[in-house]
Amino acid sequence: MTNIAPSIPLHQMETIYLILILVLFLLAISDLIVGVSNDAVNFLNSAVGSKAAPLKIVMLVAAAGVLAGTVFSGGMMEIARSGIFYPDKFTFADIMLIFLAVMITDVILLDTFNTIGFPTSTTVSLVFELMGAAVAIAIFKIAGGAEYAQLGEYINSGKALAVISGILLSVIIAFTIGALTQFVTRLIFTFNYERRLKYLGGLFGGIAITIIVYFILIKGAKDAAFMTPANYKWVKDNSLQLLFFSFAGFTTLLYLVNIFFRVNVLKVVVLVGTFALAMAFAGNDLVNFIGVPLAGYDSYITFINTPGANPGSFTMEALSGAVKTPMIFLLMSGLIMVITLYLSKKARTVIMTEVNLSRQDEGEERFGSSALSRGIVSVSLGINSFFSGILPESTKEWVAVRFAPLPRKRKEKNLPAFDLLRAAVNLVVSSALIALGTSLKLPLSTTYVTFMVAMGTSLSDGAWDRESAVYRITGVFSVIGGWFFTAISAFTISFILASLFFVGGTIAIFIMISIAVFMAYRTHRIHLKKEESGKVSKAKEESVNPDNVKEFCTKNAAETFTTVSAFYNQIIAGNQNTDISALREIRNNITGLQKEARTQRKIVSQVLKGTAEQEADQAYYAIRTQDNLLEILNCIGIIAGASISHMANHHKPLSEMQLTELKTINDKLTHLLHGIARTVATDDNATAETPEMLKIPVETEIEKSSKNEVKRIREEMTGNRSSILFMSMLQETRNIVHFSSQVLHSLNK
Q1: What is the mean pLDDT of the chain?
Q2: Alpha-carbon distance 275 to 220, whole Å?
Q3: Is the Cβ–Cβ distance between 99 and 24 less than 8 Å?
Q4: Which residues contact 295 (CB under 8 A, 6 or more apart)?
Q5: Is 669 left (phi over 0), alpha (psi -120 to 50) or beta?
Q6: Which pLDDT does position 691 carry in this prediction?
Q7: What is the model's pLDDT at position 410?
Q8: CB atoms < 10 A from the CB of 183, how many?
Q9: 477 class by beta-carbon count within 10 Å (0-12 exposed, 13-18 middle, 19+ buried)
Q10: 15-25: burial string, b at 16+ Cβ within 10 Å, e else
Q11: CA distances for 417 relative to 47, 355, 357, angstroms
Q12: Is residue 647 within 8 Å of residue 528, measured between CB atoms?
């Protein structure tokens, strides 16, 4: 049924539809919030990553850009109205179901991606949500014997394909232009660009800002809400003069502020670029957040102003025509976006994903390796070797010198992820491409464009070296894969919701709205927990330095020994009680500790980079301590995993004799681990027990149990599987003892 409530009188039905319009606008507010949280990375990552200005200043500039950009988005609103489907083939009731399905899906999807800190494309979401919901309703209409019997008569497949193709093509264009522009710029300025800025900075800044003015004002002003045809004709007719005076004026101004006020020209370019990119984002992406509700509002106004119109038969040809979006809606949307920009903590999480993938140094890699990324690196190394073989040595040396990064200062923390030169290129190229797409009425994915430009510039800058390339490439493919997952998810969820609404009517609509609200609340709680955990980890990392690294390792050792002792006891109890659930919980806890131990190992390694020669021994023993702690956790993890596998396969449990011997070993091991923890905590080498004194009792007991087990095997007193598990536990216990004594040995140095 296409009517939401076909048996209700028309005046009451209008009230129901008015409520649904209000719901659409409430969803639009929610969508603006989650959308800005997702897309803030697009215009903030360069300024934040390069530390061009304090975060408050960057936010203020971006907020001004967002507000300015809202009035440039009027022409893009037609994409939501008639860009994906033919509105004249759908009734008012159909359109309302489509728009509700789209908005609910959008809020759920974007909020989920924001929670896990993954940048995704709001444009891809909108396109595939509209397509999914429209296809669902069209199928029901065709099945019900509607006038139009072919799916292609409902879906604007040509326009949809053009939009999707444009988005995919923008990936290649953005990456290529970003990489080439950065290569040429770095070749001219090098990493040591301070001296060259005195002579070339004003010229570079003038060109950059003029490019921004051209694409934002001249190419993008046609459909701005404030622009009259006469004013636009004047701008178009005088575009060359405007560009010339812009270039001359900005170049002169930048030279003057650099000479008289010692202002870094690149910081000015980055802030102007941030403004421009925020403006381009709002102009291009605002349709993704409010285009559908505004189309729903226009549909409702058209419906109620048509006397005797029936929602189940009144078709929506009105949506096919051009429309000027009221300024009040644009400005209110901009205000909500600005408030979200300042208050959203999820936005900062998403920003860090892109900044980390494009940073200049190694640091913590969020993504792992993959066969595809390793293959790409292997091919790239082969191509590099080929060109290295044919280029003259002098040319290679000249290029190598100009691309040699500056050395990092010892003990300096909170360094920028990349320098101002790359940030400026990121912003100029991204804003120009997005503004060009907006002027052509192509809803480009700002996330695609800015992300791929950032990846291209980081590649040219040598940020993807052999130490990090496979991880960065995996990250890029993960994010791109996430966008394709978004497309599939958006189409599927929107299709399902539209189908449910068509069949279930008003009840289904409000049930799904309630579920969406609940899911948003749940993801908010999950993000808060992740944020608190991240704050603790960040504080721990920033608190470590070469002077207190031994104290850091000592604390880690004491915590690890205490935890491992408790886990060992719990594993024995789990085997005795055949409690596989308890063992799985222990293994999950061990996995978390292993991840934390690897992070601690990287912290120590990063802190000790560049330490003085006289501190080399301390660095060596600190790293060895962390390696041994990780090995101890690996051993207890193997014991837990072997116990789970044994129990999952329903083998006979350990015998009473085996459990008794394990408990005896556990008592000795507990004494060893707690003894080492106390010894390293006292930091008194004169009174400290030696590793041999502490480990002999445990090793003696393990050896005794091994001989007893061999005797039981020989006399057929134990099962084969139980014996394998028991001997495996003894071997890993030996390893725990060995690595524990090595920790004590290292910390006593």
Answers
A1: 80
A2: 15
A3: yes
A4: 77, 80, 81, 95, 99, 319
A5: alpha
A6: 54
A7: 46
A8: 18
A9: middle
A10: ebbeebbebbb
A11: 10, 7, 9
A12: no
Average pLDDT over residues 94-102: 91
Q: Position 552: which residue type? A: F
Query: Pick from 642, 643, 701, 641: which is nearest to 671 by CA?
Result: 701
Q: Determine the Cα–Cα distance for residues 148 and 714; give it in Å rounded to an integer.
A: 82
Tally of residues, the chain? 749
Query: Residue 398 and residue 140: Cα distance in Å, rounded?
Result: 67
d(CA 289, CA 123): 9
Closest to 50 measured CA to CA, from 444, 384, 354: 354
Q: How far is CA 364 from CA 62, 471, 494, 592, in A?
A: 28, 10, 37, 17
**Contact indicator for 7, 99 with CB cutoff of 8 Å:** no
Q: Single out the residue of 173, 46, 116 nearest to residue 482, CA to CA.
A: 116
Query: Which two tokens mark 574?
Result: 């789990």
Tokens for 692, please give them. Answer: 């041999």
Encode 231-252: b = buried (16+ Cβ within 10 Å), e = exposed.
eeeeeeeeeeebbeebbeebbe
Strand, coil or helix: 85: strand
Residue 85, strand partner residues:
155
Name the 3-class secondary structure at 315.
strand
Note whether 258 and 202 are within 8 A (CB).
yes
The SS3 call for residue 86 is coil
Contact (CB, 8 A) for 208 and 486 = no
As a whole number of angstroms, the distance between CA 35 and CA 289 comes to 7
**pTM exceeding the 0.85 threshold for the entire prediction:** no
CA 135, CA 126: separation in Å to the nearest integer?
Answer: 14
CA 108 from centroid of its chain's CA atoms: 16
Residue 91, classed as helix, strand or coil, is strand
Mapped onto helix, strand or coil, the DSSP state of residue 466 is coil
Closest listed residue to residue 45, CA positions, set 346, 338, 355, 344: 355
pLDDT tens digits for 465-480? 555 667 667 767 776 7
Cα–Cα distance, 107 to 31 (Å, whole number): 5
